[in-house]
Amino acid sequence: MSVADSPSAVTSTPLVCVADLERAAADRLPPHIWDFLAGGAGDESVQALNRSALDRLRLTPRVLSGGTATTAGRLLGHETAMPVAVAPMAFQRLIHPDGEVATARAAAGAGVPFVLPMLSSRTLEAVAAVGGDLWLQLYWLRDRGLLLDVVRRAELVGCSALVVTVDAPVMGRRRRDIRSAFALPPTVTAALLDGAHGRELHRATANGSALVAHTAANFDPSADWSDVAWLRDSTALPILLKGLLDPRDVALAVRYGVDGIIVSNHGGRQLAGAIASITALPPIVAEADGRCPVLFDSGVRDGADVLCALACGADGVLYGRPVLWGLATGGGTGVRTVLDLLRDELREALTLAGCPSPAAARGLAWASV
Fold first, then answer.
1. Domains in the chain: how many in total?
2. For residue 251, which of 21, 91, 207, 309 sits 20 to 30 Å off, Cα-Cα?
3. 312: containing domain
4. Mean pLDDT of the chain
5. Which residue positions form the known binding site?
6. What percent of the chain has pLDDT over 70?
């Protein structure tokens, strides 16, 4: 029986930290699916760098702030329970039968946006039906007609933003997937794309990864800023670019009408040798200078990490792999447990740092040691 067809186990003990769920998810999932979820590009040193760079950050707390902090904030003009959105992560039916529907429902219950991956294993319409604040991730498809069709569907179902991943002109070399000859089982499909655009996903290839073959056939490595202009002219939805690390790209993003920036190295899954996302964040915040929101992604594990990102100038954070650990171990209930834990940790971190709200975290002094 595949993971996509098997029932979920619900955690039987109180969750103290998400690292407990990481171990449980690794034990539960078949090795090739765990490697797809956990792996990175090359020797995976960028993943380790994301964590070590966050771990080196130290904050100087304030005192006598007058009570317990609130975690409530705003993202793209919408009220949120905390300044966090669930990051786009592909093919969630590999992890649980309900896949992205379960994750979206948990995010809605937790009061945070859910970024539906373009490589979703549930349809856009099925995910939108659960309610909540839904954003849609896009890749630059060679088939611009199909890309525009997905955008129109997003508009019809009420998505509130488009998140264009711009750091994946080609797929990063992920050694774990190559070694396992990763391919999707027949029960899991790229549900937002038609069958002709997803057939490569079910066949292992000469280099060992069906995902590489799929992206090579369907993603457009020639995309440039003129494509951003085309998309901006094609929709009134807010557009965020995900994958910026160089401040020089900020001015271009603003010039082409982008509504937000997500500082990200794709969780260490794209360029082997990239800088840590948290290292890139302060210079990008300085360059943006309030002209558009700046969000942070890659390596976030707990509320203290969220606080560090806010102190470094981020307006919000995307939360990734721990959500899938919750999905693997408890389905939608597991995801909600992870998000509730994150909110509790953030509230505690804000309170201990003397910040009455997430917005106040920008006033914290910080240093990398």
1. 1
2. 309
3. 23-168+223-361
4. 92
5. 88-90, 137, 139, 165, 174, 242, 264, 266, 269, 297-301, 320-321
6. 94
